[in-house]
Amino acid sequence: QVQLVESGGGLVQAGGSLRVSCAASGRTFRDYAMGWFRQAPGKEREFVAAISWSGVSTYYADSVKGRFTISRDNAKNTVDLQMNSLKPDDTALYYCAADPHASRLRVEVDADYWGQGTQVTVSS
């Protein structure tokens, strides 16, 4: 089992920045690729970003490429999502997820373990 707890969400104006974090506990953090997903009301869950277990490879949805950066610290068992140039369309509940395979995160939009989510609201 892997437990994931997100933090750092909040309200920000369009054009602003926000950093959300995910703390993992349980099984070996290095065994898992990590990802961030989001879901807005009335919409399906959407892949945002993923990072390989080593941190060498990163993947982004086209909608956030160039604005968001995913990173991980395997010593602290954390994964962060730095969000810049935020837009009202980025408003959603942001979830952290863990899976042994980064491809499952970004292609199947699914994972073995999920956090509870943190709300990000971008005002216009």
Determine the N-to-C terminus distance: 40 Å
Largest sheet: 7 strands, mixed
Distinct helical segment count: 1
Q: What is the string of helix and strand elements?
A: EEEEEEEEEHEE
The total of beta strands comes to 11
- Averaged pLDDT: 96
Strand-residue fraction?
over 45%
Compute the CA-based radius of gyration: 13 Å
> What is the helical fraction, as a range of percent?
under 10%
Which regions have little confidence, pLDDT < 50, spanning 5+ residues? Answer: none
Based on Cα principal axes, name the global outline: globular
SS content category: mainly beta
Structural features, described:
The chain is mainly beta and 124 residues long. 6% of the residues lie in helices and 51% in strands. It contains one helix and eleven strands, in the order βββββββββαββ. It has one helix at 102-108, and strands spanning 2-7, 10-13, 18-26, 33-39, 46-51, 58-60, 68-73, 78-83, 92-99, 113-114, 118-123. The strands form two sheets. Strands 2, 4, 5, 6, 9, 10 and 11 form a seven-stranded mixed sheet that branches. Strands 1-3-8-7 form a four-stranded antiparallel sheet, with no helix packed on it. The longest helix has 7 residues, at 102-108. It is globular. It starts with a strand and ends with a strand. The mean pLDDT is 96.
